[in-house]
Specification:
heterodimer, A: mainly beta, globular, B: mainly beta, five-stranded antiparallel β-sheet, about 0% helix, about 55% strand
C-alpha cells in the first residue's frame, strides 16, 4: 500500500507556464487537501475536498485550482505560475466521517518558479 | 480566525525531557493535533487532543487546556532521531470541522 503519492518530486518552472501537481491516494479516504509550506509561514491550506465531486477554498487559494473527479485523485493546477508560488507543496488525505481526523501527508513536491 | 503560537527553536540533550508549548486562539474549537516533520520529509501524526488532560503514547505525551487555549507536547528519553520540527495544528468547528490551521512549528535539536 503506497498511501499517498505525489508527482513530480521536484520541478523548476518558468513564470507564466501552466503546471499540474498530481496527488493520488489508495486509502479510499473521503477528504483530500493541498498545502504549501514556506519557511517562517508553516503549512497553509490552499484547497480541500471533503468528498469526490466537491471542492473548497482554503487560506491561500488565489492562483490555484483543483478538481476531484474521483476518490483517489486530487490534482492541483497553477494556471500561470508566478515566483511567489515557489514552495513545497504537500497533498494530504483523511477519512473524514464528519469531524476532525488524522491527515496523512504525501512526500511533497518542491516547486521553483523562475 | 485562528492564531497559533509556538517557540521557533529549542535545544535539548539526549536522554532528557523537553516540553514544547503551543497557545492558540480560535473561533470554535474541534481539537488539536501535533505532527512531527523531519527535514525534507512529510509531516507525520503524533497525537490528537479534544478534551482537557493528558494523552500518553509511549515516549510522547500531549496535554490540552481548552479554557487556557494551551497545549504542550512532552518528549521523554530524548533520542537523536527526535531532532525535527514539531507542528501544532488546531481544528476549528467551522467549515466542515476537519480543516487544520498549523502553527509555524518548533525546530527541536537534540544534542549529545
Amino acid at each position: 500500500i503506497a498511501g499517498i503519492t505525489q508527482a513530480p518530486t521536484s520541478q523548476i518552472l518558468a513564470a507564466g507556464r501552466r503546471m499540474t501537481l498530481r496527488c493520488t491516494q489508495d486509502m479510499r479516504h473521503n477528504a483530500m487537501y493541498w498545502y504549501r509550506q514556506d519557511l517562517g509561514l508553516g503549512l497553509r491550506l490552499i484547497h480541500y475536498s471533503n468528498t469526490a465531486g466537491t471542492t473548497g477554498k482554503g487560506e491561500v487559494p488565489d492562483g490555484y485550482s483543483v478538481s476531484r473527479a474521483n476518490t483517489d485523485d486530487f490534482p492541483l493546477t497553477l494556471a500561470s505560475a508566478v515566483p511567489s508560488q515557489t514552495s513545497v507543496y504537500f497533498c494530504a488525505s483523511s477519512a473524514y466521517l464528519g469531524g476532525p481526523d488524522t491527515q496523512y501527508f504525501g512526500p511533497g513536491t518542491r516547486l521553483t518558479v523562475l | 480566525g485562528q492564531n497559533i503560537d509556538q517557540p521557533t527553536e529549542m535545544t535539548a540533550t539526549e536522554g532528557a525531557i523537553v516540553q514544547i508549548n503551543c497557545t492558540y486562539q480560535t473561533s470554535g474549537f474541534n481539537g488539536l493535533f501535533w505532527y512531527q516533520q523531519h527535514a525534507g520529509e512529510a509531516p507525520t501524526f503524533l497525537s490528537y487532543n479534544v478534551l482537557d488532560g493528558l494523552e500518553e503514547k509511549g515516549r510522547f505525551s500531549s496535554f490540552l487546556s481548552r479554557s487556557k487555549g494551551y497545549s504542550y507536547l512532552l518528549l521523554k528519553e530524548l533520542q537523536m532521531k527526535d531532532s525535527a520540527s514539531y507542528l501544532c495544528a488546531v481544528c476549528p468547528i467551522t467549515g466542515g470541522g476537519n480543516k487544520l490551521t498549523f502553527g509555524t512549528g518548533t525546530q527541536l535539536k537534540v544534542e549529545l
